[in-house]
Write a structure and sequence with these properties.
single chain, about 40% helix, 12 helices, alpha/beta
Length: about 270
Amino acid sequence: MNAIDAWAQPANGRLREKMPEVVRLLEKSGTAELLDRAMSIDETVAHMDAAGVDKLMLAAWCRPEGWVFSNDEIAAYTRAYPQRFVGVATVDLSKPVAAVRELERAVLELGCKALRIVPWLWKLPPNHRLYYPLYVKCIELDIPFCTQVGHTGPLMPSETGRPVPYLDEVALDFPELRIVGGHIGHPWTDEMIGLAWKHDNVFIDTSAYLPRYYPPQLLQFMRSYGSHKVLFGSNFPQLPLTRCMQQLEELGLSAEVQARFLHENARRIFKL
């Protein structure tokens, strides 16, 4: 199906230690075994093959307490299988000058194709001043900014995930910045759809939700005037790729809409 997964992380067995907030989320999702078990690069590719996923956009993670997955760790995946993994960089938001330099290094030296910052990790919404130098650098490097929208599945406050006003203000201040809001935006899905319609460079990815649970209004948006605005994402390892891909068949998408959703939109937005 040539699927490109727009939101994934390594399953390296360190999540329980490094990301205690996500333990309950993986337990509720039925993937708790990956909290402690590392999946090798080769095993990850085998899992992708079994599911029919062509590429994983694999993200680094940093939090105030330190790095969870470094940009160099992500580069190990992309070097091993350059046709299967796409690097998504992150930075230490608390160090703005060093963050800009690290983003530039991750893109120019490591080959990353986007920046992702998860606001709930920092308890700072995306319109906070610490993000703004990074948005300028994203525009200079011609890469998208990816972020989380909607309520926070991990046990952290959800306020930073509100699309309006936070992401709306960013899109107004930086109309050249391509923005991908991951995790649909629930319970503010209508707000996120409104932003994607309002702003030419705002997009939605479906990560963290099995296709069976995509909101009806998002499916209507995908099937009509928003078919060029929505990207497939899993949030692997929270959701197994095989289950996501099997449930996609239940949606009854037309061939054209499915192609845009699964790979064409991602290729265009991330310039793959």
